[in-house]
Design a protein that fits this description.
Elements: H1 3-24, E1 27-28, H2 29-36, H3 40-52, E2 56-59, E3 62-65, H4 68-78, H5 81-97, E4 100-107, E5 110-117, E6 132-134, H6 139-147, H7 150-160, H8 173-186, E7 189-192, E8 199-208, E9 211-221, H9 222-225, H10 228-251
Antiparallel strand pairs: 1-3, 2-3, 4-5, 4-9, 5-6, 7-8, 8-9
Length: 253
């Protein structure tokens, strides 16, 4: 094996360890070695290096992610133009509705929450910047899919599939295509119980020169969306907000 290939494998394995630390929250060397099917001595070498660099922390023999990663995530968000443009609108809607409001992007075919605002009366779902979920399971993801051309949609579905997250998740390709067409016609999306049972979402796309750059979503209890009048109010509000963000994104200095 060439040195370059060996080096790339080393980097890949380091990130696999970070992914497992994220998934497990904390884990010991022996368990991590079993998960990765590599020697404990090798795992220990990786963890020692990651710890020395601040990406992992050793607490009584258990390892967890280090706060150094928070610096990267924080900078990524605060350097993002969409975050800064959307934040005032998210704050306004959250204060007005007492619902969770988020601005979202697509990354490598996955739905990513860039930022969320909420109040003490909002659902407490543990939503945080950077959380990543299957894009087809969430109205704020589907409004982005609806704005892509067929080739891009095919690429995302071929790569990630249509995995069920709840019993209500759309897993049929034709059914998803029909919903995307409805979203295109009405300009917004509504669904519930597809990503979390009891959670509903109303969302609209943020577009710049007809290109989707993200979405605005309002997260509310499912029962709220069964009230047609309230659902219509949220749909109107999220469309207005997405339009404001779209214009400001294009023209603000």
């Amino acid at each position: 094996m060439s040195n370059s290939v060996s080096g790339l494998k080393t980097v890949e394995r380091a990130f696999e360890i970070l992914e497992l630390l994220k998934e497990k929250k904390e884990i010991g060397v022996a368990e991590l070695a079993r998960e990765m099917d590599i020697p404990k001595s090798t795992v220990h070498d990786y963890l020692r290096t990651l710890t020395s660099m601040g990406y992992a922390v050793n607490e009584n023999g258990k390892y967890r992610l280090g706060f150094r990663l928070l610096e990267f995530g924080g900078q990524l968000k605060y350097r993002n133009r969409l975050f800064h443009i959307a934040k005032p609108e998210l704050e306004r809607i959250a204060e007005q509705t007492d619902e969770i409001v988020s601005v979202n992007v697509e990354d490598r075919g996955r739905f990513v929450i860039l930022h969320a605002e909420h109040t003490s009366k909002s659902l407490q779902l543990g939503i945080y910047p950077g959380i990543t979920i299957p894009i087809h399971t969430h109205a704020a993801g589907k409004v982005m899919l609806a704005g892509y051309d067929d080739g891009r949609v095919d690429e995302i579905i071929d790569q990630h599939g249509l995995t069920a997250v709840t019993e209500h998740t759309i897993t049929d390709r034709d059914e998803l295509e029909a919903e995307l067409e409805t979203i295109r016609e009405q300009g917004y999306a509504v669904d519930w119980d597809q990503q979390v049972v009891g959670m509903g979402v109303v969302a609209a796309p943020v577009k710049v020169e007809d290109q989707v750059v993200g979405s605005i979503g309002i997260v509310t209890p499912t029962d709220h969306l069964r009230d047609e009048e309230y659902c219509a109010e949220l749909a109107s509000e999220v469309q207005k907000s997405a339009n404001i963000v779209s214009v400001n994104y294009q023209y603000s200095p």
